[in-house]
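Researcher: Here's the sequence for the chain we discussed earlier.
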Amino acid sequence: MRIDLHTHSTASDGTDSPGELVRNAAAAGLDVVALTDHDTTRGYVEALAALPEGLTLVTGAELSCRVGGVSMHMLAYLFDPEEPALLAERELVRDDRVPRAQGMVAKLNALGVPVTWEQVLRIAGDGSVGRPHVATALVELGVVPTVSDAFTADWLADGGRAHMEKHETDPFEAIRLVKAAGGVTVFAHPGASKRGRTVPESAIVEMAAAGLDGIEVDHMDHEPQTRARLRGLASELGLLATGSSDYHGSRKTCVLGENVTDPEVYGEITRRATGAFPVPGTGGI
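Model: Thanks. This is the structure I predict for it:
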């Protein structure tokens, strides 16, 4: 089985619609794909309606968190999307995305970059507006060559010249909320140092004690030595070790199935979940 547990659609900051994403996942030879848009589950209905035969969909989300002044992302799988407390927290995070992005546009303007709010909204479309949309605007204007190049201290990285803070969930609260909604939690790309400061391993130890289920080990932003270190840490702490593409369509260079999760790890995730269950495709529309 080929299992990719981290992808994004136009419901947040990907460039494939949810329907296109699942069709592309099947074409890429995946057996299982997780839809994990940022702080939203809006893509579920379209993805499920278009799900090709032979492909299983895992519903999820990537939650924006912060601990010790460091931003981090928490992948949440197979939770009840209508559970009130988790739903309210996701809405709180999403509601803060617009003023944050507007603040980044204002800072860029002050730096002499002629980005406009209308440009960012056009790029975001129906998705939850976020930094990748602002980064894409910088690419369009020729300020940086790629989206990844916008995530530096010069521009949009944490602490960068045009960075703006936003509401982010405490990860220990995220773990509690996701578990209460019947879901499973995996710390996304914990060693992605090229994105900025990373969470110290001591905090991962504390999260494991608080019920964290796993850490994403095989990821495009993890060098081989980082993967080896994280795999060892997962073993020490009794955490699941996952692998995923973090696919965003054409917004990033990674491809579906670039990194995958071991079937036994996937099976354990599904065994732990009680809020929702993987959905096998029946042919789609």
